[in-house]
Amino acid sequence: MDTSKQIEKGLIVSCQALENEPLHSSFIMSRMARAAKESGAVGIRANSVVDIQAIQDTVDLPIIGIIKKIYEDSEVFITPTLKEVRAVCATGVEIVAMDGTTRERPNGEQLSDIVATIRKEYPNTLLMADTASLEDAKYAEALGFDFIGTTLYGYTNNTDGENIANDDFSHLRKLLKDINKPVIVEGKIDTPEKARKSLEIGGFSVVCGGAITRPQEIAQRFVDEIALIK
Ligand SMILES: CC(=O)N[C@H](C=O)[C@@H](O)[C@H](O)[C@H](O)COP(=O)(O)O
């Protein structure tokens, strides 16, 4: 089945727990993915080859695969170099997501070269650009990405402190005006209402992570609310 059709107007659940998080475990991430599927999610986003493989063994939903890796010489950390992009593609995921900002990449690599190489080596893998700004999104669209994600809005120096829901989703609205490729809304979508709004405005699909799969974030919201009565 066509991956785009499968994920259109649906919920993609990001099942990620880094080494420093309580649920860091491929087994647990695979169970998170199963729970997401049982709830009607249409796709999964996952970090690392081992997590992707565990999830592939557990659910038959399309996966957006990434590898987070820190390099000393760059702020880019989501599937930053050709090496990680290749490793994600080799798992057979339907979509590989990578940093799609205009920032300098590790080892002086160019995003245009990575895209050209991967299109040749993995012509069937769809490419998603994790962007932070309208400028990034235009750049990624020009490079031929299949999906533009809002993933890094609020997470770069020039967007620090921003939130996708601010000002009635003004950033998303601007993107949708200027970008023709499908926009996947991701990052800080922490309520069902925000997820619905993202799609009503014109988002192609919506990715939710922490609000579903990071219990420490979920519990914190309860604790913070309760603290208000003291
Ligand atoms: C900025 C960054 O590192 N984002 C990562 C990208 O894969 C994940 O840590 C997020 O959980 C994911 O984007 C979903 O977002 P949220 O958890 O806010 O729903």
Give a structural overview.
By secondary structure, the chain is α/β, with parallel strands linked by helices. It has one domain (about 5-225): TIM Barrel, CATH 3.20.20. It contains ten helices and eight strands. The protein has helices spanning about 5, 25-40, 50-55, 80-90, 110-120, 135-140, 165-180, 190-200, 210-215, 215-225, and strands at about 10-15, 45, 65, 95-100, 125-130, 145-150, 185, 205-210. It has an eight-stranded parallel β-barrel, surrounded by six helices. Helix 5 links the parallel strand 4 and strand 5 (about 125-130). Helix 2 (about 25-40) packs across helix 3. The longest helix is centred in the first third of the chain and has 13 residues, at about 25-40. The model has no long low-confidence stretch (mean pLDDT about 100). N-acetylmannosamine-6-phosphate binds near residues 151, 152, 208 and 210.
